[in-house]
Amino acid sequence: MSTRMSTLQHPAGTVTPRFTDLLAAEWIKLRSLRSIPWFLLAATLTVVGMNANGARTSRAEFGSWTVHQQEYYAKFGALHDAFTRPCASLVLLMMGALGAIAILSEQTTGLLRTSFAAVPARRELLAAKVGVVAAVSTGFGVLVASVSFWLDEAILAGRYGGVSIGDPGALRLLTASALLAPLGALVGLALGAVIRHSVTAMVALFALLFMVPMFVRDDTHLGAVVANAHPFNAWARLGLVGEVTGLRFPSTAGGAWTVYPVWAALAVLLVMTAVPGRDQ
């Protein structure tokens, strides 16, 4: 009986897909969405252009500043122009949308049900999807952070306070900015997996990644804990050079780095637990 059951479960000619095959399939599915390449191109040009415009504006105004202002900008401000706060929010939102689309496009069309029928090992399939989304968004993050940084240095070279990768905090800001992209994408993937409705998922994504940092007050201990645990605030802390002053409950660089893997792990956990048990 056990031999017959084994034969039924693994009929002749059936090939169990390798994980690399699942990765390739998930990459094809994501790439086949016609809006994705244009979305990534537009997102890259937008982020790089906004960062470059910040450096260009500062260079144009540099001559009208006092000596103290010029010295402060050369020490701190030029680094902040390498990757600005609006661009950090934009990267989180855009990559969050990419992650949500990666799974919502399958859930709304029924393709995910077909994928599960072809690959009964649902968690392996979802792990491949997580891997592809993380890889694509990481590539995007590294590209926009690197190009923005070096373009900023080129614009501000000379007496305007160009930034070097060896300057204090420069490599940390570059790394933190690049890793915002996969973090946002995984959060979007998790929200899409849990909510399963395009408009609602996008609204939740906007509220979680953009609105929360604006409205959470950090003048109480609980408020500071919530604020410091948000990805945008963690990135902002990692972009600071020197000691943090003026805050009652400041976060540490180590605590800010911890926010990244914790959010990513929770997002992956949601995807891996929310989707396999459903009849898609």
Describe this structure in words.
- The chain has 280 residues and is an all-alpha fold.
- Helices cover 76% and strands 0% of the residues.
- Residues 1-13 have low confidence and may be disordered.
Q: How much helix, percentage-wise, in residues?
A: over 70%
**What is the strand content?**
under 5%
Helix count? 12
Oligomer: single chain
Radius of gyration, in Å, reads: 22 Å
Terminal CA distance reads: 32 Å
* Overall shape: globular
Low-confidence stretches: 1-13
Q: Biggest sheet, open or closed, and with what strands and sense?
A: none
Order of helices and strands: HHHHHHHHHHHH
- Number of DSSP strand runs: 0
Structural class: mainly alpha
What distinguishing features does this structure have?
single chain; 280 residues; mainly alpha; 12 helices; globular
Blueprint of the fold:
Blueprint: H1 2-9, H2 19-31, H3 35-61, H4 67-82, H5 85-107, H6 111-118, H7 122-156, H8 170-195, H9 198-215, H10 221-228, H11 231-238, H12 253-274
Short summary:
This protein has 280 residues and is mostly helical. The protein is built from 12 helices and no strands.
